[in-house]
Amino acid sequence: MTVLADSTSSSPLHFAQYFLDHSSEDLRLLWSHTWLSVVPVVIGLLIALPLGWTARRYRWTYPPIISITGLLYTIPSIALFVMVPPLLGLDTLDPLQVPIALTVYSVALLVRVVADGLASVPEDTVQAATALGFRPVERFFKVELPIAVPVIAAGLRVAVVSNVSIVAVAGTIGLSNLGQLFTQGFQLSTPDAYYPPIVLGIVLCVLLAVVLDLAVVGLNRLLTPWRRAVPS
Amino acid sequence: MIRFDAVTKRYPDGTVAVDSLELTAASGQITVLVGPSGCGKTTSLRMINRMIEPTSGTIWLDDTDTASMATHELRRQIGYVIQHAGLFPHRTIVDNIATVPFLLGTDKKEARKTALELLERVGLPPHFAKRYPAQLSGGQQQRVGVARALAADPPVMLMDEPFSAVDPVVREQLQDEFLRLQQELGKTIVFVTHDIDEAIKLGDQVAVLRVGGHLAQLASPVELLSRPIDAFVAGFVGRDRGYRALGFTTAGTLSTRGEPTVTLGAAIPKGTDTDTWLLVVDAQQAPQGWLDLGADFTGHETVSDELLYRGGTLATQGGTLRAALDACLSSPSGRGVVVDDGGALIGSVTAREVLELIEARETERQP
To answer: What's the ipTM?
Structure first.
């Protein structure tokens, strides 16, 4: 029992004690990790909406748009973090560096999702909306987008969860987020392995991913009461 | 009034869907466009609200050239019903119906109130209002589709095979109710179907189109049946058009003879073998079926349901010659049963008598 109380123990199970000992610092990391995970997905969605709409509306643009955005996702994250400042003329370690890179990933995932979501809207419904006198923009926001929500929400879940893990990578290049716990663990592991911050980082990342995932699921349910209407 | 003035639709690949169409759909009437697939009937319909733009020619809505209007403005003045209703799955029934009023900026409360009235008007119970389209059957969804098209009280309605995706029984109900509704509303309706029977039943005038988008004949249903203009129209109108044409001639007052009856549940009459078929009625004198007096009644004391032949259709006094003749032909006794509007027995007629009536009509028509 004395071993359990010892916060300097290097046992992986002592992550909770490590958290209690550094709670204000860890909560700050968690908070910034949360923002870094959510905001780029939201901005990515806003960018993906017109792109996905274009891919759907002008069918010939679908293959190039989907391939190019899909390719973006294959760039290793660390390389993208490093490339963003010179490409956009920002300072290295500009606060926008990581959010921009993460937005690129979100766009890469969500363009296809938006295009497929819009494709899931029944043709009859779109035709009827047009014939009843919806203008294109009205039709998009009042008919097509609401009906595409379930498909888009499924894509958002993937985007938000994968963002949580990519943000952690950004921590290793010095940004303040849960990824720093891995750096700390690495630095404290001399001469002997010291696990608590590393395990804490994993636990908090997983918890954050679960919470954000549930938030997207909840939002989807809120926006689609019609999906739960049972035939009677 | 909707008028097609030399309207042509040619696609970039050279296909001509509609070829210099001249057609007027009169106000307050149902004009049916009918023809085989590829005849351009749906293209013609969709050019009215500019879902498809004509290549040349003009479509007039009363005195306005439709091409001069903003498309969304034009469409909001025109009700539109399609095959699978095309309801918005994410909106409740009441909000589906109120779609166009919402678009026009009508007060939401007001729009929903009108929508509820329409829901009732198309024969659906008020508690459907809060449901979603997925909770309704195909026929019910189609009723909502009609209500949605009527919501802003547009003078013009376009209907693109609205009843063809439902089963025949429901289709007939929907057709009958549609005609009843039209009697009250008097909309200018253009209705597309591939089903000539539907065209003849619903149309005040019927436009038969042939492949390539040519108008073959524009006529009233009776005229179409009795005087198809060419072999194509004759073939399309179909084989038993003579018989179907009887459906447009009222029989007038049929001179019926009294029909002996037995009431359902009464004792089986015995010892009369002058006629083997006896008509069975219920307590309200409504005919139920025929009893075969020559049959073996072992185990039966009274006239019960399972002994009845129900093959015969009923003719209504004041109904059509077609119904009268059909009642005779379908009756096992050869005597067609005639009832009054309340469904109570008046008497019976024979096929010979109905045929004499038909011949008399023919002689009247030809001086």
So the answer is: 0.79
